[in-house]
Amino acid sequence: MENLKNKTIGSFVAEDFRTAAVFSKYRIDFCCKGNRTVTEVCEKQNIDVDTLLENVLQVVQSENSGTIDFNSWPLDLLADYIEKTHHRYVEEKTNVLLPFLDKLCKVHGAHHPELFKIKELFIGCAGELSQHMKKEELVLFPFIKRMVKTKESDGILSQPSFGTVSNPIAMMMHEHDNEGERFREIAALTDNYTPPADACTTYRVTFAMLKEFEADLHKHIHLENNILFPKAVILEKDFVEVV
């Protein structure tokens, strides 16, 4: 048990994504801040470390009912999965949520002025994520895929315009932090996505979609911050000669 206290939150979730539910229950950020140890998190959030680890181990030691082991996937496959699953999800749900939020502000804004701030935050999120994903799709992911193919063919990796893969990764992780913080504000403003007593059907559906959007974003960022990016940095180090 003692050695697990110095293990990072992100490592737990990378090895078994089912543990994400435990960390979420304790309001522990396993994606943007997954590099913190269990001890660090528990001390900061006043959580009993032994109780948390017992809950985590119960999940880890329980029978695995078909959970996908993303940690074992080749990096090119993982990059494709993130793009086709999570990037497409963001694009599709954004197109639905923006008009819903606009409608809520018009109909309920007078009695619930926080809706205007929620809408402002989500518009910012939508715009930033759109640019963020394009940078990954056009620059970072193609280079990761090229590294995989070059490694398989025992070739020589030509130096990219950004120098080293750590440079765009640092930028992507910074942008992840920004969106994580933005959604923490949205969660606070919505009382953790709890619709008010006078909420209409659209109001309730919108809050449910925002909650789902945040959950998908957490998984999306986790796959990149805790699995794809660290392994890409390690893979780049395998190339002794860079020209």
TrEMBL record:
InterPro entries: Hemerythrin-like, RIC_family. Its main location: cytoplasm. It is found in: Cytoplasm. It comes from the Bacteria. This is Iron-sulfur cluster repair di-iron protein. Keywords: Cytoplasm, Iron, Metal-binding. Gene3D superfamilies: nmb1532 protein domain like (1.20.120.520). Residues 84-232 form the Hemerythrin-like domain.
